[in-house]
Amino acid sequence: MILQLLALSRLVQRPLWRLGVIPMIWLMVVVSYAYGHAFAAQGRFEQSRLSRIVGAASVLQARAPEKHLRAVAVEGTMPRSTVLQNPAKKFHLIDRLIPPLLDGNTIFSMTQLRLHGLQFEQRRQSQLKTSGSDKCELSIDAICTSEFSLQRIGDRDLLLQLNPKLASKRPRT
Question: How many other CB atoms are there within 10 angstroms of residue 118's CB atom?
Fold first, then answer.
């Protein structure tokens, strides 16, 4: 596209118009660099967090191997990495182009969990028999971290709560 703009500017014989093309080209380069860098950083951030979630689910399963986990409900949204926060403030489109990997209890979230090794069915949080407390209390059936909490609800269900306090809240896409 940059080459097309340069070729088009050569066709127009007005030198002033050619000067107007230079800021457009510079803006395209800056936005594409910011997008690429933020996309890669968010990918690394989400992969590391998903690895910790899968590890926590494995620990909960190992604590009670006779009770096979079958379903999970996801609450919350995966926060932004700090590298994504800065360009998203200047270029609001970047936040829309890089959606969160886990965003509530959606089909896309469940697909991502399955791709990372958690072969669970999707449950709605209303289907789980929770105690009503949003606060995670460390026990043999719960893993509480600053990033997420994973709690065994009943014998076969898990509740994954993502804690968006570490990063600003993402707008809905």
Answer: 18
